Amino acid sequence: MLQIEYPKKGEYAQYMIPYLEMVGDADPLLILLDTLLPFYQSIPVNKINYRYAPDKWTVAESIGHVIDTERIFSYRLFRLLRQDPTALAGFDQDDYIGPGDFNNRSWTDLLDEYTTVRENTLAIIHQGTAEQARFIGTASGAPISARAMIYMICGHELHHFEILQERYL
Questions:
Q1: What residues does each domain of the chain span?
Q2: What pLDDT, in 10s, does the model give residues 107-164?
Q3: How many CB atoms lie within 10 A of CB 58?
């Protein structure tokens, strides 16, 4: 299994630090392999369309956001591992929620998509080398290495996991 070193300063933007710190000293590959699927499956059906405040996402929208973001981040990771120097565009997470129509999808369908996206992310990671993981490109106008992107994928999901636990359930 590819060992991913913690990214060094200069391999990520300042706004990414809280996400990277959520992973900390843990092995990001183990975090990704030990998915949060059992936790998501344990969420009561009556909570799926719950939102803790009028302007906040529902549980389904939150999971949809995690899926969409991992899909975008894994594409970025793929490009970084291929050492593509082309700057990668940013995205507005809120613009994806409405068209995702997550509240009208079955919970099973969302969790199946989560599993598929995670398997894709792991396949991308497993084809990389430690040397490729140190490649630094640009995403959302900021420098990012492939290994920092792996930490971002993990940290982003852990961030939403924490929010779901604290505010939704």
A1: 14-168
A2: 999 999 999 999 999 999 999 999 999 999 999 999 999 999 999 999 999 999 999 9
A3: 18
Q: What are phi and psi of 144, to 5 degrees?
A: -155, 135
139-151 residues labelled b (16+ CB within 10 A) or e (exposed): beeeebbbbbbbb
Q: Please check whether residue 76 is in contact with residue 88, taking contact to mean a CB–CB distance below 8 angstroms.
A: yes
The C-alpha atoms of residue 144 and residue 165 are separated, in whole angstroms, by 29
Structure tokens at 101: 């129509």
Give the end-to-end CA distance of the chain in Å, rounded to a whole number.
35
Place of tokens 């590819």: 2
CATH value of 14-168 in 3.40.50.300, 1.20.120.450, 2.40.160.20, 1.10.10.10 = 1.20.120.450
